Amino acid sequence: MTDRKIILYIAVSLDGYIAGNDGSLDFLSLVENPSEDYGYLEFTKSIDTVVMGRKTYDKVLSFGIDFPHKNKKCFVVTKTKQGKDENVEFWNKDPGELIRNLLDQEGKNIFIDGGAALVDALMKLDLIDRYILSTVPVFIGDGIPLFKPGRPNMKLQLLHSVSYSSGLVQNWYERIKQ
């Protein structure tokens, strides 16, 4: 195995949601600032592979912009699509198998770009090394929670924390393996 890390980098509301019930990301507009990328560009220099769920991929495509990870190897974990398209390769097997295969290859870190089902599956397999959570200062009341019940107990160590003028707070946690 290589020393690649599996990193979840995601925005979440203060009450723990990554999207509204309808998949809406409207709460993110509360911290949009064209002059601030919240460390995202620097983060993307440390990765060469992106893994996301199918709903997240569909949401990214709905933005009507160029696919943001064109210069990375991208996988979409899905039960409904097969093969590949111009942006990604679809993965229809166990997401843990995909991650273990990627860890056996040389490369940079691997970015988990959501969604909640993929995060839950990888947490249950204890395959996420680092959690970078950008907390948006808003309660959305209901929606898609980032963390589902039934996940294993985990101990994390805070590596880094930064607050921005928009009110967003970004915390970097490293998983402490027992």
What does the model show?
- The protein is built from four helices and ten strands, in the order ββαβαββαβαββββ.
- It has one domain: 3-Layer(aba) Sandwich (Dihydrofolate Reductase, subunit A).
- The chain is 18% helix and 31% strand.
- The mean pLDDT is 93.
- The protein has helices at residues 40-44, 54-62, 95-103, 116-124; strands spanning 6-13, 17-19, 47-53, 73-77, 89-91, 109-112, 130-136, 144-145, 155-163, 169-176.
- The protein has an eight-stranded mixed β-sheet with strand order 5-4-3-6-1-7-10-9. Strands 2-8 form a two-stranded antiparallel ribbon.
- The protein is globular, with a radius of gyration of 16 Å.
- It has 178 residues and is of the alpha/beta class.
- A hairpin with a 5-residue loop joins strand 9 (155-163) and strand 10 (169-176).
Quick summary:
The chain has 178 residues and is an alpha/beta fold. The chain is built from 4 helices and 10 strands; from the N terminus they run ββαβαββαβαββββ.
Q: Could you list some keywords that capture this structure?
A:
178 residues; alpha/beta; single chain; Dihydrofolate Reductase, subunit A; 31% strand; globular; 18% helix
- Mean pLDDT equals 93
CATH topological fold name: Dihydrofolate Reductase, subunit A
Instruction: Give a short account of the largest sheet.
Output: 8 strands, mixed
Alpha plus pi helix count? 4
- Ends apart, CA distance between termini: 19 Å
Biggest sheet strand order reads: 5-4-3-6-1-7-10-9
Q: In the CATH hierarchy, what is the superfamily?
A: Dihydrofolate Reductase, subunit A
CATH class: Alpha Beta
Quantity of strands, as a count: 10
Share of residues in helices: 10-25%
CATH architecture: 3-Layer(aba) Sandwich
Strand content: 25-35%
Structural class: alpha/beta
Domains (count) = 1
Kindly provide the radius of gyration, computed on alpha-carbon positions and rounded to a whole number of angstroms: 16 Å
Low-confidence stretches: none
Order of helices and strands: EEHEHEEHEHEEEE
